[in-house]
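Fresh eyes needed here. Have a critical look at this protein's tokenised backbone.
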Amino acid sequence: MSAEDRIERVNTVYDQAVFGGDAGGLADAERGLDAVEADLALARGRILHARFLTGRAGGGPAPVEDPAELPWFERAATVYRALGDVRGEAEASFWIGCLHQVIRRDNAIAVPELERSCRLAEQVGDKTTQAEALRHLGIAAHMAGRLDEARERLEESSRLRRQIGALPGVAANMVGLAYIAAAQDRRADAEATLGEALAIAQSHRADAIVRQIEQARTEIHAPGVSGS
């Protein structure tokens, strides 16, 4: 049910209660509004996260964390949990973990949230969120030097992304896989992976991923750089 439908439901239930004396639908309508609140909180947090990422990619001064972002994600997680919405809780947990990893560079806090997200998403068959969580768990493993684990996580994320047709996301994962290959002295594999990633990114007009691929090629082929 859409947010618009849920709000319209409130109008109907109100009339039934006030004019018809039937208050039976009030609790259900209130839960519907809670779901709208959680969806809105998650969406607001994602907007702030997107602003951080685009600011970081813009080449200007380093962006700073918006202090409202984490509270939005935490509010969404709390409401989804109260509603018993496992899919929503999985997504909110992912974004909490993503913020701690990407913005705060704190994998000690990020990884448990990402693992929780992955478990919950798998439980309800949410391949999109599961793939996101696996990607960022792979990034955490890569940062910790656990290259085989990082490769396994990214490959599983890519497998799920292919299943749901999220091919630009597959290309993004390939950038990470290329860095891992370079760190393992598999330079030919790294170049082949970047070539495939470029073809996917260009065919889907994923310009931000194309720039990441170009940067990866420069860094991987730089003298004395392992790609890690």
Q: What stands out?
A: Residues 166-228 form one domain. The mean pLDDT is 93.
